[in-house]
Design goal:
Oligomer: single chain
Structural class: mainly alpha
Radius of gyration: 16 Å
Largest sheet: none
Strand content: under 5%
Number of helices: 3
Distance between the termini: 51 Å
Shape: elongated
Number of domains: 1
Mean pLDDT: 86
Helix content: over 70%
Length: about 60
Amino acid sequence: MERHHLHAQLKQMLKRGHTAEELRQSFDLPNTVINEAIETCLSEIRNEQRYQRSQQNQASYAMGL
């Protein structure tokens, strides 16, 4: 499985509520590959959440002007 597809699939599963341990058990790949993909996906999710919070704060501020 290509790295891009692996990352996309893991990200989708994490967003659906699967735990990292469930993902490790679901894929027959070396732990280092899976751990790297999980960390990358979690980092992307955190960045998206940070961006959304920032947008929310800006909108709230603008509405208060």
